[in-house]
Amino acid sequence: MTVVDLIDTGVVAVVLALALVVVFTLLARERRTTRRLRAVQVPPTAPHLPSTRQRRAAIVVNPTKFSSLDEHALRRRQAYVAAVFRSHGWEDPLWFETTPAEHGRQQAQEAVARGVDLVLAAGGDGTVRAVAEGLTGTSTPMALLPAGTGNLLARNLDVPHTDLAAALDLVFTEEDRRVDVGWLEVDRGPDGERDDGRDGGPERHLFLVMAGLGFDAAMMAGVEDRLKQRLGYGAYVVSGARALWGPQAKVQIAVDDETPTPSRTRAVIVGNCGKLTRQLVLMPDARIDDGVLDAVVLSPRGGIGWGEVAWAIATRDRRGQRRVQHLSGRRFEVRCAEPQEVQLDGDPIGPARRITLSVDPGALLVRCPPLP
Ligand SMILES: Nc1ncnc2c1ncn2[C@@H]1O[C@H](COP(=O)(O)OP(=O)(O)OP(=O)(O)O)[C@@H](O)[C@H]1O
């Protein structure tokens, strides 16, 4: 190992150590202040209004996210939620469970067919994406009951992600906001296996936060479920430390109708919104309702390069520099010389040779606080 390698290794170790300290401190503080799930107090029932049609919500639940609750606790939680709806003059909600084969899209479509006024996605970002696929293009809004590890959409929309009762309150106090939807088309090459549960046509996935390929996707693919349950967000830091050392990828990036530009990169991340945590903002200019997608292209070499990337992100640098390039447009196409891991709102979906990302402006209604 040369002296430069040693310095590089040292810098990476310091950057990672700092990142670990910052992430764990922020998460610990966030948990302390917001974890306490409000006492299960059933609010008083509102006076019955016979003349108007009662509104009704559907709740699409990913049961794996509540597996720590026993049958009794689960029923109490459901009874509490139903009582909250009744107390606001709504009918008892319809409940749908996701399955290993149907992650929420079909359940949301069924809820719309049954005429509900709102569909709540109770799960992580995977459930939120699936429910959004079922609601996009309809006039039925979605609300969030965040129960995942990352809860990236909730973080970006300022929906409480550690207090289900507070998230539920928003249903009755907030308005519907129109947000953009991102679509990712994946070309896996002749040997690739599709991952969207459909048979014909191109493989297509909806995303609401970020999609991309390279380092970040490899990091997410490397997160083991057991570690995620034990460490939560910290599992991503551990996996990130492993993925840091991969080689640069040769890619061609085309934005809208421009000529593709060749690049050697570690990650191309395209965002509908840009926040990873309250403090960590990857794309400071990304807005979920501006009708365009933003992107960052990260091209560090060695530990010093990663240090520059970490600094640019920590300081929310908007201008970009040689290691961190910012782009924006309505359509991105990324072609890779070798297949690269792809991620969607934090979920790895396997390697691909080419991805195309486009925006469908204002295609989804979400009930949430005013958009940041
Ligand atoms: N009934 C079920 N049994 C087993 N697995 C399920 C079931 N329903 C959904 N899943 C799995 O859960 C995944 C979605 O999980 P979730 O909603 O937590 O998103 P996530 O992105 O994994 O969240 P996070 O990583 O933030 O915890 C789906 O992709 C599917 O694989």
UniProtKB/TrEMBL annotation:
Segments passing through the bilayer: 6-28
The organism's taxonomic lineage, starting at the top: Bacteria, Bacillati, Actinomycetota, Actinomycetes, Kineosporiales
Molecular function terms from GO: kinase activity
Similarity comment: Belongs to the diacylglycerol/lipid kinase family.
EC number annotated for this UniProt entry: 2.7.1.-
Names of the cofactor(s): Mg(2+)
Name recorded for this polypeptide: Diacylglycerol kinase family protein
PANTHER family in alphabetical order: SPHINGOSINE KINASE (PTHR12358), SPHINGOSINE KINASE RELATED PROTEIN (PTHR12358:SF54)
Source species: Kineococcus halophytocola
PROSITE patterns (alphabetical): DAGK (PS50146)
Superkingdom classification of source: Bacteria
Top enzyme category: transferase
InterPro entries in the record: ATP-NAD_kinase_N, Diacylglycerol_kinase_cat_dom, Lipid_Phosphate_FormReg, NAD/diacylglycerol_kinase_sf, YegS/DAGK_C
Domain called DAGKc: residue spans: 52-188
Keyword entries, A-Z: ATP-binding, Kinase, Lipid biosynthesis, Lipid metabolism, Membrane, Nucleotide-binding, Phospholipid biosynthesis, Phospholipid metabolism, Transferase, Transmembrane, Transmembrane helix
